[in-house]
Design goal:
Blueprint (H helix, E strand, L loop, with lengths): L12 H9 L1 H15 L8 H21 L4 H23 L9 H6 L5 H28 L11 H25 L3 H15 L6 H6 L4 H4 L2 H15 L5 H25 L3 H4 L1
Helix pairs in contact: 2-6, 3-4, 3-6, 4-6, 4-7, 4-8, 4-11, 6-7, 7-11, 7-12, 11-12
């Protein structure tokens, strides 16, 4: 049986690994979070699929015509963009409340606090998986070919998941102390959405001399980790991989510093 020090102790890398081994605990908590969101609903989590399909269909039809894009290319592009962006946005905004919503557990149970970070990732992954289902349906309708190269999305998703977990670690610790952080990040993410090639393509920016908008935007490279292999059935360009790895290392270092400085005080600020 694994035991832990008091809630005020500083977590180590080993505790992150130990918490990961308690996957039944945080997975159950995460699934319950999804179920509670749709309690007494007729469709339950099926509303995620309905809402996502409706949004993609409406936005795709309008912006596809507005940008004069062929729908068989634009709609799958848009679908992956919105689904992937939703994951990034959730890890940065909803992640701020990861410790706050777990206040009762943190003060009553000796589990490592990292369990509640893993728990917060579960709903994001479920919504992302449903979104991928919408993409595959869309790709099948438009008969887009997809080769074995699309499997590059698997190692890319691992990197993508690690980066977003670092996002979550950072904002969860800061958000527990500064309760205005979700509102601040919500506004920042909204602005970043319009500066990132989610609903418009890179070619559109290049044609208008705005290539710098995506070239200096690390969130674009995170999007391409998932979008490029699924749309092109090949590995993402080297620059996408290198920038994403560099960003992951930077985010990991910041997360380590934040954990070292703030984790032992979480129980006191809740």
């Amino acid at each position: 049986m694994i035991t832990y020090n008091s809630a005020s102790s500083r977590p180590t890398f080993g505790e992150f690994v130990s918490a990961l081994k308690l996957w039944r605990v945080w997975l159950h908590m995460g699934l319950q979070d999804v179920k509670s969101r749709f309690r007494s609903s007729f469709l339950g989590p099926g509303w995620i699929l309905v809402n996502l399909a409706a949004i993609i269909g409406a936005i795709g039809m309008i912006y596809g015509r507005l940008f004069h894009q062929p729908m068989n290319e634009f709609l799958p592009f848009l679908t992956l963009g919105l689904v992937t962006w939703a994951f990034i946005g959730s890890s940065l905004t909803e992640g701020c409340n990861a410790f706050i919503v777990a206040e009762g557990y943190i003060k009553q149970f000796p589990f490592p606090k990292t369990i509640y970070l893993y728990r917060a990732m579960v709903p994001y992954i479920i919504v992302f998986a449903i979104g991928l289902g919408v993409f595959f349906v869309c790709a099948a309708i438009y008969q887009r070919p997809m080769g074995w190269g699309a499997l590059w999305v698997l190692p890319c998703f691992v990197l993508f998941l690690i980066v977003n977990f670092f996002h979550l670690v950072i904002v969860a610790h800061i958000g527990a102390r500064f309760r205005d952080l979700p509102h601040l990040l919500g506004s920042a993410i909204q602005i970043a959405f319009y500066l990132t090639p989610v609903m418009f393509t890179v070619a559109m920016l290049k044609d208008r001399g705005l290539a710098f908008v995506y070239m200096v935007n690390p969130l674009y490279y995170l999007l391409e980790l998932i979008r490029y292999p699924l749309l092109n059935s090949e590995a993402p360009p080297a620059e996408v991989i290198y920038v994403s790895i560099g960003y992951c290392v930077a985010a990991g270092l910041v997360a380590s510093l934040i954990v070292k400085k703030m984790s032992h005080r979480i129980v006191y600020v809740l």
